[in-house]
Amino acid sequence: MLAQARWPEAGDDGPAPGVPGFVSSQFAPVVVAVTERCLGRGYGVAGVSPGRRTAIVLVSASGDRTSAEHVRAAVEAGGRIGPLFFFQSVPNSVAGHLAARWGLRGPVVCLSPTGDPYADGTAEADLLRYDGDADEVLLILIEQAPDASTEAVAVLLGGEGRP
């Protein structure tokens, strides 16, 4: 493990800062906040070295629950769905946003775990590294509970050699 971060951490009062292009839900802002922390801790101010291939594996059983509920309610009421909800309803949209923002040059994989989310995510990360598709993997685990605030953890996995 090269770096780790959580949302929330000590001092996180209130929602995660908004992200341009993402509306209404805390899913994308929390993914961005936890990733910024993790990559900042792992890479520092220098950022990702140009030759490094960093993959993103985003793991969520429920995805963006808030956006999905908004779309469901709008459809049931016969209303229109705003175009941003189509964009942000796919979890890889926020992963792609992060890859572009940080210059990450590895694959982007989104998983809905069938077992333990961390075990499923690390298995995918190991596979990406073992197959030579990535030098490092940013593993993001996020869930939105209907009656609690959104929580996430990001872990930068990698180092010398393959697993």
From TrEMBL:
SUPFAM superfamilies the UniProt entry points to: Thiolase-like
Record Pfam families: Ketoacyl-synt_2
Domain Beta-ketoacyl synthase-like N-terminal, residue spans: 53-147
InterPro entries: Ketoacyl_synth_N, Thiolase-like
Name listed for the protein in its UniProt record: Beta-ketoacyl synthase chain length factor
Species assigned in the record: Micromonospora zamorensis
